[in-house]
Prior knowledge:
Blueprint: H1 3-28, E1 49-52, E2 61-64, E3 69-74, E4 78-83, E5 86-87, E6 95-104, H2 112-117, H3 119-122, E7 140-146, E8 149-156, E9 167-169, E10 173-174, H4 177-186, E11 192-195
Parallel strand pairs: 2-11, 5-9, 8-10
Antiparallel strand pairs: 1-4, 2-3, 3-4, 6-7, 6-11, 7-8
Amino acid sequence: MNLNVSRRISMFTRRSLIFGLASIALTTGMTPVFAHTKNTKLDPKYNPQTVKFSGYQPGTVIVDTKQHFLYLQLPGGKARRYGVGVGRAGLKFKGSATIGRKAEWPRWTPTKNMIRREPEKYAKFAGGVPGGPGNPLGSRALYLYRNGKDTLYRIHGTTQPSSIGRSVSNGCIRMINAHVEDLFERVPTGASVVVR
Length: 196
């Protein structure tokens, strides 16, 4: 086959695919959301940094929902601190848990309560959303378990970096994707989590 003909066929196939996917998204009412496509200015205090912090065993994850910080307790009275977004009033997780499992580019399915509260927003996703850049859980998720059972709360990435430092989620703890990726590598399954 002539090289120019092969390139034209390949280009036609790619264009058809892109046009077809765009048509499906428009006709189903799905709006693609991609991880961090906007250049959101993050307050520097929410960037990962080492700070003085004590009171917990090294390796414990502590979430301060009022101040919008997550701390990973380190030895020697220090912690790695990250900015987070947390649940809005009445939807916050509180108390102790453990990291029951971890996932890269996790699948997301809204909870039954989310669908009940806002069916117009969440019912169309009842079957779940595959992992990837458009998934609301972002690039990583740490699943919070209590007494061996999934609480349905997560520490996860976000497609809405402007939510960091705010109380706007359905209860989960949101982080910038690069920050949750850093935490994901530092925290093993079974680590203790305290949300206060």
